[in-house]
Amino acid sequence: MKGKETIRWQIYANAAMTVLTLLALIPFILLIIASFTDNQWATVNGFSFFPGKWSMEAYKYIAASWSTIGKSYLMTIIVTAAGTALSLVVTAAFAYSLSDTRLPGGRFVNFLCVFTMLFGGGIVASYYTWSQIFHIRNTIFALIFPGLLMNAFNVILVKNYFTFSVPASLKEAARIDGAGELKIFASIVLPLSVPILATIGLMTGLMYWNDWTNGLYYLNQRDGSKYYTIQLILNQMNENISYLSKNASQMAGVSVGSLPATTVRMAIAVVGVLPVLVIYPFLQKYFVKGITLGAVKE
Q1: Mind listing the pLDDT tens digit for each residue in 90-149?
Q2: Which residues have C-beta within 8 Å of that of residue 33, sequence separation ≥ 6?
Q3: What is the pTM assigned to this prediction?
Q4: What torsion do the CA atoms of 139, 210, 47, 50 make, to the nearest 10 degrees?
Q5: At what angle do helices 4-35 and 263-290 cross, to 10 degrees?
Q6: Residue closest to 152 by CA, chosen among 115, 189, 122, 185
């Protein structure tokens, strides 16, 4: 039986979480409603949960460019899938090495990993390295490698999970049976680390899906447009609408009155985030498990 004090605190906690949940959901609900609001009505009255006039013009504008958007969606899926898979391999392998106390120079390597969280060379140094040394400009690798392939925070999370949640006795027993480190890593450590890998995979996948800076830096419109992702295309559409709206008086023969310049931004945001909302529920249970690092100890 729960005591009155426990029940009282549970009620307070549930009420607080309900408020926080509403604070997260309400802006997104307003975003969806705004994308279906008539552009002229929204321009005059602003966005509202109960618009005076509904419209599909924003989505019709996006649908008119679907041949381009469809290709960019496919490219985004390819980049996100390939980048996330490669990132998990690199991160997990690096974290497994750091979790082994027998690693020669392990403390120094761990220091270098943490050092990258505090200091960096900056955008100019990164751009010069990737474009002049690795020559990845206007290639698909420009969307995968720079800044997203691995970060120290994820490595430390996975390393802690390997250290505290994977029993050392299992690895030692495998070594006694003659298994090598690669066999132990693939057959014992990875199967026991699905929660943390799913958590890291979800966060990394979100970064790849939402990234547009790599395309801005390393892809130009002439040679790299075939690698444009959905974020780059939607951002380009948004900039085109803004340009037409601001310069309508100077552009003879161009009608911008029908362009949903205000509401299309909301529709673009909905289109960009929709796949993430579809995938997240399937990974949520792993995400919850993954954040409880070190829950299983010897």
Answers
A1: 999 999 999 888 888 888 998 988 898 888 888 888 899 999 999 999 999 999 999 888
A2: 47, 48, 49, 51
A3: 0.79
A4: 120
A5: 150
A6: 115
